[in-house]
Sequence to fold (392 residues):
Amino acid sequence: MNGLPREALRGRLHALGFDVVRFAPAAAPGDPGLRDWLAAGHHADMDWLVRTADLRLDPQLVLPGAQTVIVLGVNYWPGAAIGGEPFARYALHSDYHDTIKPGLVAAGRVLEELGGLGATDYRYYVDAGPVQERGWAAAAGVGFRGKNGNLISREFGNWMLLAAILVRAEVPADPPLVAREAGRTGLHCGKCRRCLDACPTAAFPAPGVVDARRCISYHTIENRGFVPRELRAAFGGRVFGCDECLAVCPWNRFAQAGRSALLARRHDLGALGLLELLRLTPERYRELFKGTAMKRTKLAGLLRNACIAAGNVWGPGGTGSARERAAVSAELLRLVRHESPVVRGHAVWAVWRVLGAAAGAAALAASRAGESDLAVIDEYEAGPGGPAEPAG
Ligand code: B12
Ligand code: SF4
Ligand code: SF4
Fold:
């Protein structure tokens, strides 16, 4: 197989909308931590990571004969802070899997044209494939793995999505930022540990290692069931994803406004209030979130998350406005009768938080009598659990 001209290829892929285009040799990378991470259970219930571990550790099992991994970065910094706490920034776009994919399809055509490759000589992935995108990005010098676990670009900071193409052709490799230290966590962090200290749920058992069982991003996006009760109060007003350990990172001072060539902004969603989220009907949910990453949680997941956020924002020490308190309580008391036990259970938790012990018990008495799901009954039994004076 012929080699591919590196700079011509980089230029063509950049023109397709990829902000960073770099190349690493597709040698098997060994096991720089994935197996330990899985063995410790840090993947929570994401068992697909276990099932694909062998593939993730050896690109030859994914595409036999692969010689190069092309690592692609898409910068999603909007230029100024948008939205707020409820939604992770990446989610305020049409689903990036869908909008980056046409760029990958076009990249495949470029490989065929420049390298005379066939369609089976390459495989591309964005997020969902059996490829450790952060590891390859570090190997190709896209950036370094911060103590927050994220791949940090010295050009764009933390706000970069990744994609990868395995290809059966040689491309001269780009060097990692520091030779022989590509995978080292915190390579350019120095003594800083802001991300570790800022994590609301203490989800870092060690620098660079995220325990998904404690991570708000995992629970609000991937977890389909009950969120552990002891973690909920730390979620604050977050409804989908969490940017905390990314946002505090000083490397973001280098962030540049993205071209958005392979993204479609939905910053309008950032203006949605919690009350509106609690009131979502299936029709309104479809209308608002069609084509976004937030479809992943389904309506029940989003309502569950909104209940947790409401329980925090209008609960003890919360910042919710007194003007909206009655309306929020009314919606929560409607949701304690929702068809999904997961929504009902978290609505009960939120009612305890918002109304406190006495008013909560009175308001919940009727629905409690009719509840038969054991997990939801457990939420009734748990009561407010701690100081529950309604705020403000
Ligand atoms: C599972 C997953 C999650 C889980 C677990 C996160 C985690 N830290 O592992 C949860 C749901 C919690 C999550 C959350 C988020 N995620 Co996520 N997630 C993934 C996914 C699908 C797999 C990651 C994984 O395998 N984790 C296990 C750990 C052990 O692996 P790792 O992070 O890759 O790190 C190892 C390797 O890099 C390896 N390594 C080191 N050197 C080398 C060298 C080579 C050559 C190789 C191959 C490997 C290697 O060693 C590291 C330590 O073991 C990737 C997509 C993908 N296919 O890679 C996206 C991905 C990592 N997520 C992403 C994003 C944006 C997020 C969030 C910011 C979303 C949000 N705002 O809520 C948060 C950030 C949380 C955090 N601090 O990490 C982006 C990150 C982009 C970037 N710049 O780093 C990715 C790459 C998706 C994408 N295509 O853009 N995520
Ligand atoms: S995404 Fe949020 S909860 Fe998860 S590790 Fe980062 S700061 Fe902690
Ligand atoms: S916040 Fe500090 S420690 Fe964390 S990734 Fe950024 S530079 Fe590294």
Q: What stands out?
A: Residues 316 and 389 are 6 Å apart (CA to CA). The beta strands are 20-25, 68-75, 122-125, 144-145, 151-152, 160-167. The chain has a mean pLDDT of 94. The radius of gyration is 23 Å.
